[in-house]
């Protein structure tokens, strides 16, 4: 068992975290199957409430399913744009918020709230812990993908109910993440939304009670 890791490893881990950016600009080159599977295998390492492993992953590959997801995004994005006005609307309209048209791989990741695995341990008072578990698993995959040179982009401008309908998933599945995966066009350790001036990072606030 490893009690501590050397400084070099910790520094490399921090570097990996810094370069784990939300990618929206992809090259169209395919992702080798073995590379994608290595990334997806990190779900086996992820912690989950009650060891429930509630994640369910769909590779969105058909032209029909991809077109439906892209139309979903375009509709939701138009609605989001309508919520801004003036300079903010102008800036929003210039943002690239999805790499769905270019990314070679699409993953729709769901939480199965009906799972009996784990017997409900830890989810009785906080059922949302299952979804948090899925987010934790996505984060592990994201770091693994970055270590392979891959980029991932989380598309949240979607109607989740419509996507569930289009992908014909069970009623108990809820959408947690729609991820684009592929080789990034550019490398950057600063969020694109910060580089475009949409928003800036702020100092961490830690309170005591």
Structural summary, described in words:
There is one protein chain. With 209 residues, the chain is of the alpha+beta class. The chain has a single domain (22-185), classed as NADH Oxidase, CATH 3.40.109.10. Helix content is 38%, strand content 13%. The chain has seven helices and four strands, in the order ααβααβαβαβα. It has helices at 7-18, 33-40, 63-82, 86-94, 129-147, 160-167, 192-195, and strands at residues 55-59, 105-112, 151-154, 173-182. Strands 1-2-4-3 form a four-stranded antiparallel beta sheet, with helices on both faces. The radius of gyration is 18 Å and the shape is globular. 26% of the residues are buried. The mean pLDDT is 96.
Helical amount: 25-40%
The third-level CATH topology is NADH Oxidase
Unreliable stretches: none
Structural class: alpha+beta
The CATH homologous superfamily is called NADH Oxidase
* Major sheet details: 4 strands, antiparallel
Radius of gyration, in Å, reads 18 Å
The total tally of domains equals 1
Beta-strand share of residues: 5-15%
The sequence of SSEs as H and E is: HHEHHEHEHEH
Treating each run of at least 4 consecutive H or I residues as one helix, how many helices? Answer: 7
Total E-strand runs: 4
Mean pLDDT: 96
The CA-CA distance between the termini, in Å, is 35 Å
CATH uppermost class: Alpha Beta
Gross morphology = globular
What CATH architecture label applies? 3-Layer(aba) Sandwich
């Amino acid at each position: 068992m490893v009690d501590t890791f050397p400084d070099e490893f910790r520094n490399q881990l921090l570097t990996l975290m810094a370069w784990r950016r939300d990618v929206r600009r992809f090259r169209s080159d395919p992702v080798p199957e073995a590379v994608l599977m290595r990334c997806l295998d990190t779900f086996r390492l992820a912690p989950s409430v009650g060891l429930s492993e509630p994640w369910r992953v769909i590779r969105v590959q058909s032209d029909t399913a991809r077109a439906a997801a892209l139309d979903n995004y375009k509709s939701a994005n138009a609605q989001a744009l309508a919520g801004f006005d003036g300079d903010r609307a102008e800036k929003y309209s210039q943002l690239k918020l999805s790499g769905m048209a270019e990314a070679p791989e699409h993953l729709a990741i769901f939480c199965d709230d009906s799972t009996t695995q784990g017997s409900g341990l830890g989810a009785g008072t906080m059922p949302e812990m299952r979804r948090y578990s899925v987010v934790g698993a996505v984060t592990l995959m994201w770091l693994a993908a970055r270590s392979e040179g891959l980029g991932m982009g989380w598309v949240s401008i979607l109607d989740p109910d419509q996507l569930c309908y289009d992908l014909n998933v069970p009623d108990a599945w809820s959408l947690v993440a729609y991820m684009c995966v592929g080789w990034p066009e550019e490398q950057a350790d600063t969020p694109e939304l910060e580089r475009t001036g949409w928003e800036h990072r702020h100092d961490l606030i830690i309170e005591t009670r």
